[in-house]
Amino acid sequence: MNSEEFIKAVDLMVKEKGIDRDIVFDAMELALATAYKKNFDSLTNSKIIIDRNTGEIKVYSYLTVVPDEGKEDGDDIDLDTEISLTDARKINKALNVGDTIDTEVTPKDFGRVAASTAKQVIIQKIREAERNSIMEEFGDKQDELLVGTVALEDVDNYFIDLGRSNGILPKKECIPGEKIEMGKQIKVYCSKVDGSGKGMFILLTRTHYGFLKLLFELEIPEITDGSVLLYSVARDAGSRSKVAVYTEKANIDPIGACIGEKGNRIARIIEEVNGEKIDIVKYDKDPAVFIANSLQPAKNLHVIITDPKKQECIVVADHDNFSLAIGKKGQNARLASKLTHYKIDVKTVEQASEMGINFKD
Asked: Hey, which end of the chain has fewer CB within 10 Å, N or C?
């Protein structure tokens, strides 16, 4: 690589990768200085100067001008790297302490070393530029819904092609029972973006409650335009979820908007989450009403807020609704607790009576 080719390579990289030209030259000079010391056993101070216009590379050794009595700490002058002010002014009367005297020492065969080093630096800078560009593109994608193509698979993960980078979808973050096919497009939730390592790390999931939340935002126009507001989401991926919605507009049914005509909207969401059951719950500012709503399909519930600050409550259910309120393996009550952020203790009428809680028909 001659000087002209070198300048063309730098300018092309600056244009295509958007790298600052001076950053490239500064990095090149630093790398060449290291290469010079390594390949030519230089013990003196040396520096590399690259002509920004011609690409010509020259090596200089230099002596730093110090006071006649030596450095400020009293040490003797290092003749390999320093020169006294008196001796310096014998060379150039205009020199002062801190200035340098440069002498060109460019080896005859330094071009070979320079070409190899320049190539390495250019490759490194291209990688850095691409990495920074990808970071700019994906750095703010955390907690967003992405669409990619299933590209590769190993024992523990799927690798999703997102365009300029790959994301990792651990198999444990897939919806239980779903089949992930190679080459198919797939929606994923971005749970983490980390560019601090050598490469970009993008962690994906399909089990996070945020995935379901963003699917609702994608499929329900009233949520997108703000007519219907999504309050919270609780999820047991692959089994059951609860989504709380509400509206401040009297002419809109928030639950009906989410279900859609003939259930077409909610059907698309359910299909995306592999048949997961979804309860759409109406949020209410009254926590007792909201908690009762969240425990559907159970009905005729009596909710007693026992500690508003700690957000604790007792829910009394009759014989027909007690099992429904708790759900299989406690799932319904557990999801309702996540949805409302209340600790919910479901009791039978008999248990409540023993605690001194009685209700009149």
From this structure: C
pLDDT at 113 over 80: no
| Identical topology for domains 3-137 and 208-283 | no
223 touches 212 (CB < 8 A):
no
pLDDT tens digits, one per residue of 161-219? 998 788 999 999 999 999 999 999 999 999 999 877 677 789 999 999 999 999 999 99
CB 186 within 8 A of CB 149: yes
Q: If phi over 0 gives left and psi between -120 and 50 gives alpha, with beta otherwise, what is residue 66?
A: beta
The structure tokens 């409540």 sit at 352
Contact 101, 83 (CB under 8 A): yes
Class of domain 286-361: alpha beta
Residue 357 to residue 361: CA distance in whole angstroms = 13
pTM value? 0.69
- Name the token pair of 356: 């001194």
Can you give the residue ranges of every domain in the chain? 3-137, 147-205, 208-283, 286-361
For every residue of 64-113, DSSP letters joined together read: EEE-TT-STT-PPP-TTTEEEHHHHHHH-TT--TT-EEEEE---TTHHHH
